[in-house]
Write a structure and sequence with these properties.
mainly alpha; acyltransferase
Length: 62
């Protein structure tokens, strides 16, 4: 009996940030320090062959 090949396991990571990291006034240059640091670390980390890395960024303001 042959067992059909199975797809490799999939890992999904979701990260929700509150976006309240500005030291002064909220601006493009004074915000998201931790989020930017984490994104840089995740992008620099090696990913196994065949992996897909994608990101969707959405800015929502009240």
């Amino acid at each position: 009996r042959r067992v059909p090949p199975q797809a490799p396991p999939v890992t999904l990571q979701l990260l929700f940030l509150d976006g309240e990291e500005a030291f002064g006034d909220w601006s493009d240059t004074d915000s998201l320090y931790g989020a930017r640091h984490l994104a840089a670390r995740m992008a620099a980390r090696g990913h196994p062959a065949g992996s897909e890395l994608s990101a969707m960024v959405s800015r929502c303001r009240d």
